[in-house]
Amino acid sequence: MDSSSLLSLVIYSVVTCCVIMFLVWLWSYKIKNAGVVDIFWSYNFPVIAIILLIFAPGFETRKILLAGMVIIAGLRLGTHLAVRVLKHLHEEEPRYAHIRKDWGANAEAKMAGFFQMQAISNVLLAVPFFISMMNPKPDLSPPEIGGAILWVISVIGEATADQQLASFKKSDANKGKVCDTGLWHYSRHPNYFFEWLMWVSYFVFALGSPYGYIAVISPAIILYLLLKVTGIPTTEKQSLKTKGEAFKKYQASTSVFVPWFKTPKE
Fold first, then answer.
1. Which of 47, 67, 87, 107 could serve as 53's disulfide partner, Cβ 3.0–4.6 Å?
2. For residue 53, which of 91, 90, 13, 85 has the smallest C-alpha distance?
3. What's the pLDDT score for residue 134?
4. Is this prediction's pTM over 0.85?
5. What digits encode the pLDDT tens for the residues 29-61?
6. Do both 29 and 158 map to the same domain?
């Protein structure tokens, strides 16, 4: 692996993502809604993929395949989030409103730093992309084919979970109720599970390249964030606040993350 080329690609990616997030922060400052960061956090992965597709010295077919995977997944998730956030553009999500309140007078300065950290996290999580697209070996390996298949499963699963929840919320009759249909019958957070599975697929794909094992850092970080930080804990806290006893019953019977069968009632 050409270390100088790799360093240049990392620098290009960091600078590009940081500039994008700075512009997004300016927009969020104007509208007082930090939720837009989630949209562009997703869109930054396709940006990195395009940079690597154009400039990385790897095997062209491998680059096109992986870049296509990253672009499709990033645009799908980013657009899904955009529909949700832009619908209530001047109503900041509770988690960001809470953060802003905790930060007090220095909230905007800290928020600017937070946006930049999101840009850095984009590049850190893109480790599998850098490893794979630097690989010049002129054929696809079993791990790469397996990773692509796993990616298809994960993207379809996440898109299905998002669509099922959106459809449930559209009905006024479901207001205040817990979504317990489709994939949500088997997991309280199937969207998060398939999002994590997608990052596992990138790791598996990277195993077809030298030093591919390093890419395990991406699904490991995503899993930690989903289980312990900004994912499940925040979402469940808000659900308990808005749905109360109904969500407690849902918690007692339904797997928190991995889709599984219901726990029988005692």
1. 67
2. 13
3. 97
4. yes
5. 999 999 999 999 999 999 999 999 999 999 999
6. no
Same domain, residue pair 124 and 146: no
Pair 128, 144 in one domain: no
95/183 same-domain check = no
Domain that holds residue 123: 1-138
**Residue at 266 is within a domain:** no
Q: What is the mean pLDDT of residues 69-80?
A: 97
> What stretches of 177-238 adopt beta strand conformation (E)?
none
Residues 181-213 pLDDT 10s: 999 999 999 999 999 999 999 999 999 999 999
Q: Name the residue with tokens 């949500």.
A: 184
Structural domain tally of the chain?
Answer: 2
Which single residue is written with the structure tokens 């996290």?
Answer: 121
Cα–Cα distances (Å) from 262 to 156, 158, 185, 224, 253, in that order, read 22, 20, 8, 24, 5
Look up residue 54 and give its two tokens. 């154009």
